[in-house]
Amino acid sequence: MAPYAAYELVKTLKAEIPVPIQLHTHYTSGMASMTYLKAIEAGVDIVDCALSPFALGTSRPATEAIVASLEGHACITDLRKEALYPIADYFRGVKKELAGTFKLNTAIDIDTKVLTFQIPGGMLSNLLSQMKEQGMADKYPELIEEMPRVRAEIGYPPLVTPTSQIVGSASAFNEMLGRYKIVPREVKDLARGKYGRTPAPISEEVRQAMLGNETIITHRPADDIAPQMEALRAQLIDKGYTSPPIEDVLSYALFPEVAMAYFQKAGRC
Question: Which first-to-last residue range defines the signal peptide (predicted)?
Fold first, then answer.
C-alpha cells in the first residue's frame, strides 16, 4: 500500500466507523515505513511490525525503527526501543541458525515492481523457496511477470488466501513445465467455478486448456453442500458436550480433532 493511499483510507475509515483500525503491510516495495507513518498521521490505531531480525524484505517494518520514529510524537507508543535491543540480538542468532538448518534465503531484495504486479510479500518469499527447491531459482524474475498474466486469465481473483496460493501455484507450474501443461486441482476448481464467480470473466481459451469439456458451475457452489450444523451438533452431544453453542459447533466443523481436545481440556465434555 502506498503512503498517501493509506492516509486517505485510514482517514475515511476513522470518519465512518468506531472500531479500532489496524494496518498490515509488507516491505517488499520499500514503502512500508512511509505508509505506516502516513497512516499514523491519519489516526490508525495499530500497525503490524516485526522485530528487526525478521523485518524488511517480504516482512514488515522493524518494530524498533517505528518506535524510534514516534518518540516525541503525540502517538508515542509505550514501548522502549532500548528494551527491544537484547531481544533482537537474541533472535539474530536464532535467525542465523534457522537459515543454516533449513537453507533459507534471508536476504530478499526490495523490488518496487510489486507495485505494478500487486503480489503480496508473503507470496514472494514462499514462491522463491519453491523455485529453489526445484532448482529453478533463476526463473524467479519470469515467475513474477507470469503471475499478473495468470491472474488476468483466471478472472482476477483476490490475492488473499487461498486464491493467492492458487494464482502462485498456477504461475509456478507454467514457468517450470510450460503454460497450463500441468494444472493443480485447486486451479481447475477455480476455473470450474467451485470457488464462486470470479470478479472478471475467465479466459475461455485458458478454461478450455485446463478443463476441456468438464461441466462448469454457474450457481452458488455452497448450494451443493447438504446442511451440516445439526449433524455436527449431534456429534458433539454424542461425544459428551451436552449444550454446545454455535461458536463451538463451528470450531468443531473446521478443526474437529483440535476442537475436541480443547473442549475436553476445558471441561466442556
Answer: none
Q: Are residues 148 and 204 in the same domain?
A: yes
Cell numbers that stand for 106 in this block: 534471508
- State how far the Cα of 258 lies from the Cα of 163, in Å rounded to an integer: 25
Question: Torsion angle of alpha carbons 147, 150, 156, 160, nearest 10°?
Answer: -50
121 lies in some domain: no
Residues 86 and 92: their CA atoms lie apart, in Å, by 10
Rounded CA-CA distance 132/49 in Å is: 27
C-alpha dihedral sign at 81, 84, 90, 95: negative
- Give the Cα separation of 143 and 198 in Å (integer): 22
Phi, psi at 47, each rounded to 5°:
-125, 135
Domain with 260, as residue range(s), is 226-266
Number of domains in the chain: 3
3-class SS of residue 47: strand
DSSP summary character for residue 50: B
Model confidence pLDDT, tens digit, residues 19-53? 999 999 989 889 999 999 999 999 999 999 999 99
Of 236, 194, 235, whose CA–CA distance to 214 is shortest?
194
| 227 prior amide bond cis, ω within 30 | no
pTM: 0.63
CA-nearest of 57, 53, 48 to 87 is 53
> Does residue 142 lie in a domain region?
yes
